[in-house]
Amino acid sequence: MELENFKELWDKDNRQDLPEISLQKQGEIHSPMQMLKINMETEFWLMVVTMPMLLIGFPLASGDRNVVIISAFVVALTLGFILYFYSRFLKLYKILCKSGINTNYDLFNLKTQLLISKEIYISYYISYIPLAFLLSLIKINFHFEVKYNLAIFGISFIITLLLVWFIIKYWIYYMYGRYIEDVVRLVDELNGLEIQPKNTGKNSWFERSQSFFMNKFGFKGNILNTVVWFVSVYIFIIIFLTLVLFIFIFIGVKLDFIDLNILQKALDQLN
Question: For residue range 34-67, what is the model confidence (pLDDT) as tens digits?
Fold first, then answer.
């Protein structure tokens, strides 16, 4: 079925006179594209602001030379991933900035680029999982024999997995996924392909606050909404995880399966 759809699109695009897209449809497709561009700009500057905070987590000042070398390698690898991803990020941004989306070929190319970029974006965050695994090992200096180090390693790695899951499930969808779906749906509709009905369920809190801020401040309201949610979720995650760990340690101490003094020494060795 996919091959037949591709042939239909190919035949349409190879006609001598490429079909023009109506101004109404161009307006419909430019709206989600505009939101994509704004969100890409917002995420870029959020990355610039938060990157120094992320690099602080690498123990480059450790007294162990091997740990420093491995940490430097992980930093270089992380920066390499970031540079590659944002080079593709910039390429997509330039495509979105082009105003000449008048033919079926332009739409089909846009759809392809968006879907590819979405998968690259997901892969980018998944690539942090092995890096987080290595960083968790570095945190405990590769010494599993020290009491509670295994637990510290496991908790650090699980937190990273949860963050990656959250980003893929929610951040990518609200920042890009829903707008990409709008563009893909419109492209398929213009080409006479069967499309699934759009989900018209109740808006999430993010979407409600987005509508509120955009009604007040226009497109700048979308940036404000994204920043507010980014900071709020960041603070919530820190408070929530701290509370969970505190409760776990408190219960462990009360039930005598956690020695608070030994745990404190293990944590001190990580600093």
Answer: 888 888 888 888 888 887 776 665 655 556 677 7
Task: Determine the residue type at 168.
Answer: I
Comparing CA positions, the residue from 166, 136, 3 lying closest to residue 57 is 136
Distance of alpha carbon 179 from the chain centroid: 15
Rounded Cα gap, residues 147 and 124, in angstroms:
34
Tell me, yes or no, if the pTM score tops 0.90.
no
- Distance between CA atoms of 139 and 23, rounded to whole angstroms? 57
Cβ contacts of 144 within 8 Å, gap of 6 or more: 150, 153
Cα distances (Å, whole numbers) of residue 215 to 3, 147, 221: 43, 55, 8
Token look-up 């213009």 returns 190
